[in-house]
Write a structure and sequence with these properties.
This protein is an alpha+beta fold and 223 residues long. The protein contains five helices and 13 strands.
């Protein structure tokens, strides 16, 4: 699609069918700051101005999935309504997210190897990691799992070549220019650099997670 109101601020989106009951709006094929901001802004806009017939909106790092009931809604109608909202996206950017401070302990088994791979002394890596607030890019993959980014290019490191079978809730992960926090026990191919007492998932709470995409997180060293 074309239109200056979107492309002046965000990457040009594409709309594609996903199966027979969903549409995918994608702002890029790789994670960038602008593509992620666009995905977050679209979700906020769809919350304020829902598309009739859509039963679920599921964001990811650079795309947004809209699921609809094909018995009551047509893909062409959903796409037409969606294009109207996309044209207004730049002017409807959401307000800044909430501010969080999360203390972490740099006690993970990969901490030293990560610092070494980045050619930094451990103290210098901690200072660089905590030096600037990060945005919550997305939540999901597992309940309460949160992606924070983006780190400066000097802190970009690929994921591990091997997957750990399981890490506990509160594990602080590092890879691909991001810091992630687990809220449940799960396997991971990310580097394990630390841990935190911060809990981002409570199934009895409403909503069950504290952090939301667009929030800003400052990491500090836990006492």
């Amino acid at each position: 699609m074309t239109g200056s109101s979107v492309t002046d601020t965000f990457p040009t989106p594409t709309i594609a069918p996903l199966g027979d009951a969903a549409l995918l709006v994608r702002f890029g094929t790789a994670l960038t700051d602008s593509a992620n901001r666009a995905a977050i802004a679209l979700v906020a806009l769809l919350q304020r101005a829902p598309v009739p017939g859509v039963v679920e909106v599921a964001p990811s790092l650079v795309s947004v999935l809209l699921r609809y009931d094909p018995l009551t809604a047509a893909a062409a109608d959903i796409a037409a309504e969606l294009r109207l909202r996309l044209y207004a996206l730049a002017a409807a950017a959401p307000p800044p997210g909430r501010e969080w401070t999360i203390p972490i302990r740099f006690d993970g088994p990969d901490f030293d190897s990560v610092a070494d791979a980045l050619k930094l002394r451990p103290a210098a890596f901690i200072a660089a990691h905590n030096g600037a607030p990060l945005r919550v890019l997305a939540t999901g993959f597992a309940p309460g799992f949160v992606y924070c980014g983006l780190h400066a290019e000097a802190l970009v490191l690929p994921r591990r070549t091997e997957v750990r079978p399981m890490v506990p809730a509160g594990t602080v992960l590092f890879a691909a220019g991001q810091t992630a926090i687990t809220a449940t026990e799960l396997p991971t191919g990310w580097h394990v650099i630390g841990s935190t007492e911060f809990k981002n998932f409570d199934p009895a709470a409403e909503p069950p997670t504290q952090l939301s995409p667009g929030d800003r997180v400052s990491f500090t060293v836990a006492p």
